[in-house]
Write a structure and sequence with these properties.
Layout lengths: L1 H36 L10 E6 L7 H9 L7 E7 L6 H11 L4 E6 L8 H12 L4 E4 L10 H7 L12 E5 L2 E4 L7 H24 L11 E4 H6 L12 H11 L3 E4 L4 E4 L5 H18 L1 H6 L5 H11 L4 H25 L4 H4 L4 H15 L4 E4 L2 E6 L2 E4 L3 H7 L1
Parallel strand pairs: 1-2, 1-4, 2-3, 5-8, 6-9
Antiparallel strand pairs: 4-7, 10-11, 11-12
Helix pairs in contact: 1-6, 1-11, 1-12, 6-12, 6-14, 9-14, 11-12
């Protein structure tokens, strides 16, 4: 009796997962049609300050810097780098960039004040004070962009008339994870595969169901100083782990539109050890659970492949269960190809296609594990994550040091 109940439940969840995959395909089609019908107001080219907080040297970081200097943009722009100390290893790379591109306005800001748990947001607050222009683009230090990046991102702020649409408060962009070109490890490949075939599929589905994006992605956060001031400013985000997500939430709640551009950027995926991979995936899972509590519980139905395999086992490998497994596998493959290759143009998906079942089982495991606590590891330290905010875990060594 119990076995039949388990079999029925897992089969139902697997079928629900197939329905979700169908919804993803519908959402992807809707996004593609929107992008094809979008009129680019490329003549709209306001002055822009690009803010890039930097700490240490990331993989392909300098290539990302260079890509921002090679923008084919009709307006003026500046790049403002921010570091906590001028002794940061990234500073010589920024000076090298200045020498290589003297025609680009590149500035370096030393951010000496620590305003909260998030050093990145603390630096951004101080960088914003130094930014010359009203329009702001924030992205991570390792982001690699195309020469048309600024033109396409800023065009999302303009209406069909080519003039600025005051209703648009934030523009964000999809991204792919680029693994090391040589000897990419298993853990790096799994993360990159998850970004292109799982994470962005969820973004597209949220966009369809919620009739628009109501959050931001750290790959690109384009807004204005006025909008930031009206939504609490960057200062209000210094205790948040998912500051990009929270910024988008606040801007959407203030009545502004959040636009998802069709300009895909790249982020570098580190050469993870198993421990590093686990820490990052668990932090990502718990951050998502904390940000979208109800939706995160519902995320369980998206794991159609693990549920289908569980059904095969629970049914004693009955013939019908393999039919269900084949159906779920077909649906999962369709989503991976449509989103990862069709929309994001990520050729790594084809390279690592065979890892898709393994990726889904890992994701399922991290989803379950994420409910077991609220502790995350960030930059080598442990924090409690509650309501988006971080609080450092107090250890015995901290207590003894305080005494």
């Amino acid at each position: 009796m119990l076995a039949n109940c388990i079999m029925g439940l897992t089969a139902l969840l697997a079928l629900a997962g197939v329905v979700y995959m169908t919804l993803v395909l519908w959402s992807a089609r809707d996004f593609h049609r929107t992008c094809c019908g979008r009129k680019r107001a490329e003549e709209f080219a306001p002055e822009v300050s690009i803010l890039k907080p930097v700490k240490g040297i990331d993989q392909h970081m300098y290539d990302g810097f260079v890509s921002h200097c090679r923008q084919q943009y009709a307006g003026r722009y500046e790049i403002v780098f921010g570091v906590s100390s001028l002794s940061d290893p990234a500073v010589p790379e920024i000076e090298r960039l200045r020498n290589e591109f003297p025609e680009v306005a590149i500035r370096l800001v030393e951010c000496t004040r620590r305003l909260g748990t998030s050093g990145k947001v603390s630096n951004l607050v101080q960088m914003l004070e130094e930014a010359r222009y009203e329009h702001i683009v924030i992205n991570d230090s390792d982001i690699l962009v195309s020469p048309h990046y600024l033109t396409r991102i800023m065009s999302c702020f303009a209406g069909s008339t080519g003039k600025e649409d005051a209703k648009v408060g934030l523009v964000t962009a999809p991204y792919i994870g680029r693994t090391p070109q040589k000897h990419a490890g298993l853990w790096s490949r799994l993360e990159a595969l998850g970004i292109s075939t799982d994470f962005f599929a969820g973004v597209l589905t949220a966009r369809k169901l919620e009739k628009g994006i109501r959050f931001g992605l750290g790959s690109t956060l384009a807004t204005t100083k006025t909008v930031l001031a009206r939504t609490g400013g960057l200062e209000s985000l210094v205790e948040y782990l998912a500051d990009d997500y929270e910024m988008g939430v606040r801007i959407a709640k203030a009545g502004y539109k959040v636009e998802l551009a069709d300009e895909v950027v790249e982020t570098s995926v580190p050469a993870y050890s198993l421990r590093g991979f686990v820490d990052h995936q668990l932090r990502w899972s718990r951050s998502t659970r904390d940000s979208r509590k109800l939706g995160y519980v519902g995320l369980g139905i998206t794991f159609c492949l693990p549920w289908a395999v569980a059904t095969c086992i629970a049914s004693g490998f009955a013939l019908w269960s393999f039919t269900l497994l084949s159906l779920t596998l077909l649906a999962r493959v369709a989503v991976a190809l449509s989103v990862g290759v069709g929309i994001l143009r990520d050729e790594q998906v084809l390279r690592d296609f065979w890892l898709l079942p393994l990726r889904d089982f890992f994701a399922f495991g991290f989803w379950l594990w994420s409910f077991a606590g609220d502790t995350v590891v960030w930059r080598g330290e442990q924090f409690h994550l509650r309501d988006g905010r971080l609080s450092r875990v107090t250890t015995l060594a901290d207590v003894e040091a305080g005494q």
